[in-house]
Structure formats: structure tokens, C-alpha cells
Amino acid sequence: ASCAYLLRTKRRPIFPVVNDYPLDFFRQRAHREYRSNAKKLLADGFAKHGGPITVLVPGGSKIVLPSALSDWMKTNRDLDHQQLVREEYFDRFPGFEGLRAIHSPDNVVIDMLRAKLSAQNESILPAVDQHVAAALEEHWGDAESWHAISWDRDTTGIISRAAASVFVGPEKAADPEWQALVQTYVRELFTAVGKLHAWPAPLRPLVQWFLPQTSACRTLVRQARATMRDVVDQRAREAKTAADQGLEPPRYDDAVAWTQAAPNNADSNKPEAGDIQLALAVAALFTTTEALKQVLIDIARHPELVEPLREEIRQSLSDRWQVGQAALANMELLDSVVKESQRLVPLLVGLERKVIRDTTLPDGTRIPEGSHVMVDSSDMWSPEVHEEPESYDGYRFLKRRRAGHKATQFVQSSREHNVFGGGRHICPGRFFASSELKLCLAHILTKYDVRLKDGYRSAPIPSGFYAIVDPAAQLEVRRRGVSTGF
Ligand code: HEM
């Protein structure tokens, strides 16, 4: 047994290990504690050691640094987020092209998001607004009596369509087949990644050929590529016809058009249009849907927030439902509510990086190449940062904003709230996520009442350093007697 232990321990951990137990030769207890008790492991570890710690996780170990080292992490070029995605999400496997395209060498996806989905872009908002309205009608219906929604389908469906209005454009945004394709891809891909992690690393390249989820991903990539080739070809034909007739070609304001117009479009390294669409869905769908789900649960649990939010939405959009960036920026209480919901889903770590060459902490400790590092996120629920940190206060960030604190807005990442990461890899989709969420919630709160099923208690499900919003939440809704506008 000790030989097994020695074989597994490739290198001695440089920081104290917080889940190393006597006689736990096969690390069963270490992994169990990590999976179900990580919050306490980290809290106790930092209290005891007062500095960086190591946590044993299935397949290896991870270094967690105190949040005081966030700025060091953000600016350190020896640490890389892309390498982490490459290794931890297996982006070289066939079928995972949608993941690979996020970090394609020409950076087409991230450059496009930074340029086109900034806080300034107004032109995309009407399409998002229109698709959110249509998706809500389709998924939540118009029954004026209380009825349960299908929790995952009827939240994912709205975010997916809101995003598609900007990602894939008018031809496919409302197409149920396309919606099913991208949603299934994201689900199968993340499931496949989880399954692959359960296998020893050397076997994964073989195992991936036999998992049903990876096989589904390969099929879906082929379908996405074929569909998007048709869209691109059709647009090229339209442009040619218009040019032949001396007319202006139709204009498109979506990710298909933006990436086609990218300077290196002719580059043979450029990912296919279908891969780009899948990449956008991989980055945008699960994250934003999780945020919507949690805020819906929190609003249902705090009905006292509903009227003030409705009033703020009414004032921001005016009686004519005038959607624009200024209107969204005026929804300060809503912004605070969404950020507060995000604060309490216990994502225990942030700024995950791979060490791509040996690096040195400010105190001189060397961290070797290949290490997996991240920072502790417990400032989000620390009594030193927040009053009554365990309780939900929708006004929390609004009050902090009015009191002159920094980084109080949803899109602002900081040491105390690093849910969007930071430094050169900071989430380039956060402005869009904010617009989508605000528009969804503006429609939902204006048109629907929401509540949790009587007696139902909901809590996020922790899984190691991460957590998912309650996947079985029972949300009931009813249509109010109000149409769009007011
Ligand atoms: C509430 C929703 C979202 C959350 C919580 C979120 C969170 C994150 C986080 C934590 C990172 C890693 C940053 C780092 O480690 O420094 C990230 C990266 C990224 N996000 Fe988001 N994200 C969200 C929505 C979106 C959306 C809507 C898009 C696309 C429109 C998007 C696109 C990306 C991309 C492309 C990256 C990779 C950046 C890079 O590697 O340089 N995200 N996101």
C-alpha cells in the first residue's frame, strides 16, 4: 500500500496538505472530504497554516493560495488559463472542437467578444429583448394560474435563445433543432469531461473513443459545421445577388458576421463557423443559466424584493419599454440582486491557472511548472468584508455602491468577488451575461409572479471546489395580467 502511495505521489507537495489522513493509502477519505466538505477543508487549512495549502483531488493535487495573492496571480505570465482548459477539459479530443475554438490560435472568439459584446454595444439589445420575450412565452406560457415550470429546460431555453439572437443570428436563433443541438452539445461535453476525469490520465485518450457522450459530441460537431456552412453560404449568395442588382447587401449584426469579417478569416487555422458557435455555447450557456436559476430561487424566497424591482424596471425602461445600455445600467437594485445571488453559490476558488514554467511567490517560495493553482474565494462570505455574510440581502451591493465601495457592480471582478476571474483572462462575456440576465429578469418580473413550491427548500449542491444551483428546484409561475411595455 505504501508503494502505491509513493507511486501516486509524483512530487512532494510544497504546501501543507489539508486532506492527508493516516492509513488513507488509496486516498478514498481524502477525495470524499474534498467532494463533500471542501469549504471546511479550506477554512480550517487557512486558519491553521496561514498561507498557501494543497488539497488532494481525484487525479492529483491543487494548490490554493490566499486571496491576498490575487493580484500576483492576475499579473503573473508564468500562469496560464488556456493551458488549464487544454489539460483539464481535454480540448484536443475529437468532438471537443467547440471547446478548442475558445482558445484557437487566432483568438477569434475572445477578440470578437471583447470588441462586440462590450458594455457599449447597444445594437444587439433589441434582438436579445425580442427573443427573450418569445422564449418566455414559449417556455413559461400565459396561464394565469400557478403552474410549475420544467426547471432546467425552461431556464436554459430562455438563456440559450437570448444568446443565439446574437451568436447565430436570425436564421437559426429560434430554430428548435439548432437550439437542441447546442444545448445537447454543452450537456454532453461537460458530462464527458466529468467521466474522463474518473479514469487514470494515461487511459483517457483510449476511453474517449468509447464514451457515448464523446461520440455524441463528435456527431454534433459534424452537424453544427454542416448547418453553419449552409448559413454562411446562404449569406454569401444573398450578398452576391444584391451586388449583381446594384443593391446594398443585407447587414447582419451577429457572431457569424463578426467572425466572418475578422481580419484573419482566410487563415486556414481559423476554426469553422460551426466550432465557433459551439465554443460560444460552451462558454456562455451553463454559466449564465446557473446565474438565472439562482436569482430566480432567491427572488422567489424574498418576495419583498419584487415590487421595488418592478418599479425600478418600469422607471428604467420607461412606459415604452425602451431597451438600451443606459436603461440596463439604471437597474441598480437588479444588478445588486444578481450579484448577491452569485455571492452565495459557494464557488470556493477562482483564478484557476496552470503553472507553465517554474514561478516564485512574493515570499520566495518556488512553485514548479505543471502545478495547478487557484485562489481562495472565501472573502465573498467573510465577516471582515460583509455584514451578516451568511444571509441574503438583495440590497447589499447597492448599499456598498452608495457607500462608495469599489467593484460593487455585477460585471466588476475584484479580490473580494472574483466570480468572473481577472487579469488577461477575465471573462470577456460578462457584459453580455449582465445584459441577458437583466433583460430576462425585466421580462419575467414584469409579466410573471414566481414562487417556490410550497414547502420546498432549495440549496446549491456542492461538489469539491465548485457547486451547482439546485438542479431539482421546483419553481412555480403565473402570468400577470400585463403585456409587454406596461
Ligand atoms: C454569469 C455568467 C458567467 C460567468 C460566471 C463566467 C465566468 C467566467 C470565468 C470565471 C472565467 C475564467 C476567468 C479567469 O480565470 O480569469 C471565464 C472565462 C471566459 N468566459 Fe465567462 N462567464 C460567464 C458568462 C460568459 C458569457 C455569456 C460568455 C460569452 C458570451 C463568456 C465567455 C467566456 C470566455 C470566452 C472565457 C475565456 C477567456 C480566456 O480564456 O481568456 N462567459 N468566464
UniProtKB/TrEMBL annotation:
SUPFAM superfamilies: Cytochrome P450. CDD domains: CYP503A1-like. It is found in: Membrane. Heme binds at residue 427. Transmembrane segments: none annotated. The keyword Protein biosynthesis does not apply. This is Cytochrome P450.
